[in-house]
# Entry
Amino acid sequence: MFRLNRNLPKAIKVLFITVLVISISGFSPNNQNTKIIQGEKYDHQITDGENSRVIGPGDNITNIKKEAGEMPVYGNWKTFTQKDGLPANKAYCVRIDGDRVLVGTSGGLGVYENGEWRTYTVEDGIAHNGILAIDVSELTGDVWLGTLGGLTRWSGGKFDTFTQLNSGLANNVIYSVICDGKHVWSATGGGAGDYNTYTDEWEIYMERNAPMHEPWTYGVCAGDDKIWIAAWGGGVIEYNTKTKKFRDYIDPDSQMELDVFPDDGVVHDITTGVSYDEGILWVATYFGVNRYDGAHWNTYFDHDSGLLSNFNNFCRAVGPVIYFCTDLGLSTFNGNKWVSYQRNENNTAGKVLITNGAKLTDDIKIREFPASTSIAHNFTIGVDVQGDEIWVATSYGVSRGERLK
Amino acid sequence: MRKMYKLLVFSFLLAFSALQLTAQEKKSNYGNATDEIIPYGRFQEAYINFFDDPQLFTGAGREKPEPTDISEVRIGFLGPLSVSPIVPQGIQMLQGSELAIEEANKNGGYKGIPFKLMVHDDFGLWGAAANKVVEMYDEHVWAFLGSIDDINTHVALRATLKMEIPMMNSGDPDPTLTETRIPWLVHCISDDRQSCYALSEYIYKEKKLSRVALLRVDNRYGRVGTKEFREVSQRMMHPIVLEVRFLDGDTVFTKQINRIKNSNPDAIQLWGNAKETALIVNQIREMGIDLPIFASDRAMSPLFLKIAGKNAEGLVTTCQYNPKANNPALKEFQKNYYEKFGIEPDVFAAHAYDGMNMIIEAIQKAGLNRYLIRDVMTDVKTYQGVTGEIILDGAFNDVGAIWMSKIKNGEYEFFPSQLNISGN
# Structure
């Protein structure tokens, strides 16, 4: 090591020490447990799960269940792709309907029943093979398909299509569809549509007759006599079906490039999904996610919580748990704890990431558990849960998981 | 003495390394904003900045093989080609694209297969742009260029993410376009955020004006385009004194101009299409108001000069490039364009030419796979086009130099914005 010669002039010594300090600070790498996932810098602080166990057939899951607490944990993942009978590898959405599963893909509708896949396409009467959204009416059992070419109803084995030319549909590209009693709501690039299946009447809501900044809508959900619309560029619009009144929730800082304060409202005006259950409204965006209990907003980012990525394609709430479809895997959360699923880059195994708290702190970190099976692809686009079964639509196939007991 | 010399050399080597590293790590503010105009910058550091790093596309698709049975390589075009008041700009955008395609085909196309432009008009049914993107998806285009109108462009962009088609935008100045974070869009033209920053720098810093009245068109172009100007004026401690609006197609603006006059401003900022802006300039001067007038870049138009005539003298606007730059590639483009179409190319033609060439080069490099084409397009850091240096930031938005333009003797004179000169 260098030792400064006592005979050197004082100025030279000061200069040397100053330069050394500057140099060392300049070179100091940020090595706080950073991790590279798919080429992207990923800042989660991750610790290895103690006594890590794999999650798959025959695996011992005691520790991971203990870590996850009341949160459901899924495993025994099985993936289906075109090779297995799925109409196309890109799966946009999935809906569990009793004993069958409906999957919207870029190549048509896939129906999984009794261990077999059946495919329905434009040749059967569907508006377009690109199926972005599916819902099933509890009232009638009709299946509603939001496609790239209109809204299709599958009823009594027959497909009927509604388009801008033959109905009051706002636009032919349907990003989201939900059934709320006799009403079928759709979110489109030309506004949100409400189709009353009893009276055959259509309403379109956009910036001219609702408090939306823009006409573009991307997600819609219902609950407790309210409809929430993820308005692309307009935050979240709440519509009270009893009073027929609107209110909007927008990003309080009104800036697209930043968030000044977390937990102050919708994280960003560009919203991609909304879901409501048990009195909680969840919001997905490409900039983080929100939880709103009717009084307080909470914001979660990938750097300060167990959320895998700020880029969220979709969300679905089932009971107290929200399922966020991110571009880096599936994140689930109940307000207290995160459980996320991520596939390995080079094999079909993956990992389960558990965060024992809503936000990361010095004491709350992400614990990683290897899993022998995982979801089809980390770019997740749709999800549905029924009982102990979960289905995840991804960029390359659809996966079925089972809740681990 | 020798030891001292060694120590000094070692010290300077270390210092040089450290400075180099610091320079590499130095990041400019989003949108090249000066520290003074960062939102909330005077009061609070943001909890998170969204566009420091580019948004990657992590989905599948890169593994798809190149097709072997095609006879043409299709590239989509989406623009205003009928009914809309911005059809002239749409036609220029189309012609710029056509010229790029024609030249690429003269050079052998893609491995001997010709490129073909699939042209789509974005006017039609409500939200037609989304339906048009579906049509292009069904036509198997490898990428597309469009559009100009901000509503149509947003609608198209939204559909683009679902269908995963690379999108180049060369004509919509709406800053919120790239702020949607959709990793399938590259924006090869400076946006209104850049224009507003340049205008506010010029008005408040260089011209030392402080009381600006804003007269803008009452549509999304006016609302979103002036947002940054309004907010930056406030951050620079010169809140605009009055904002009044007009409708596209209006011809009489007396009421608005009287209100402006009564607000006692020392300058007027206009934001609208060329025709209305020119009529307003005429009426301002006819009413005896001799204040400096500034305008949005749509005043950079022969139509504006024709209507406003000598009243346009001294008006200052921004321009996304310098059409009089001493750039051989630009001059060649201007010559070829004039020879082919019989008119001078405007800003929409020049940027469409660059944007289409960026698509073509990405296809040449990546092959026929939309995901790989997207990767190449978004990997571009700097592209040397006929419009100058296109510099893409973390949102894949062009933050290259913005130019100022002043009308003198009936012609536009160009000079660089101080923002570029000061290197902010």
